[in-house]
């Protein structure tokens, strides 16, 4: 996407992402994860294709769309294939739509987070198509040791494993994790993993 087009889509506000799905719970869960993975994005929810069509559809960076809505409106989404991410319930690659990025909702939160992070990095490597993050999302002043602990948490290590790897006491690990959570305002492992990947503290291939 060229810079002029990107600026037109952003306008004076934040860039927008659309979720189009008739499942309220699915929308709520995905919206929460997207706001963590891409905090600079404004996420809009639509419960039908007609509702979505009444908005300014081409001003969205991406569409996250349920499989049935894509199939019912295939021509529309084929014309916007690079923007479209299809939400499926199957983990079988052979049952997913050819030519589209697909995400299976029938998986663990950790795997879903990893897939969203992969898409974010693939589509916007180095943030080249995205505006700079707001100051509050940039640096939270973690110490070097806290960054080491955060990286290992993101890699799925438990406290005892982290203590052994860093050659520190278990109580010290717990203290570091508490300090990290307080500084970042993040409690869940998924949220900490997202933060670690988006700030370059851990390679996505290691989570």
Properties at a glance:
alpha/beta
Describe the structure.
This protein is of the alpha/beta class and 207 residues long. The protein is 47% helix and 13% strand. The chain has ten helices and five strands. The chain has helices spanning 3-10, 24-37, 49-53, 67-72, 74-78, 109-123, 144-154, 159-166, 170-184, 189-198, and strands spanning 16-20, 42-46, 60-66, 84-88, 101-104. It has a five-stranded parallel beta sheet with strand order 2-1-3-4-5. α2 links the parallel β1 and β2 (42-46). It is elongated, with a radius of gyration of 19 Å. The model is unreliable at 1-12 and 124-138 (pLDDT under 50).
Concise account of the structure shown:
The protein is an alpha/beta fold. The protein contains ten helices and five strands, in the order αβαβαβααββααααα. It is elongated and about 60 Å long.
Strand content: 5-15%
Q: What would the average pLDDT be, to the nearest integer?
A: 81
- Total number of strands: 5
State the low-pLDDT regions, or none: 1-12, 124-138
Shape verdict: elongated
Biggest β-sheet description:
5 strands, parallel
DSSP summary: helix tally: 10
How widely separated are the two ends?
A: 29 Å
Based on CA atoms alone, the radius of gyration comes out at 19 Å
Helix proportion: 40-55%
Secondary-structure element series = HEHEHEHHEEHHHHH
Structural class: alpha/beta
- Reading side by side through the largest sheet, how are the strands ordered? 2-1-3-4-5
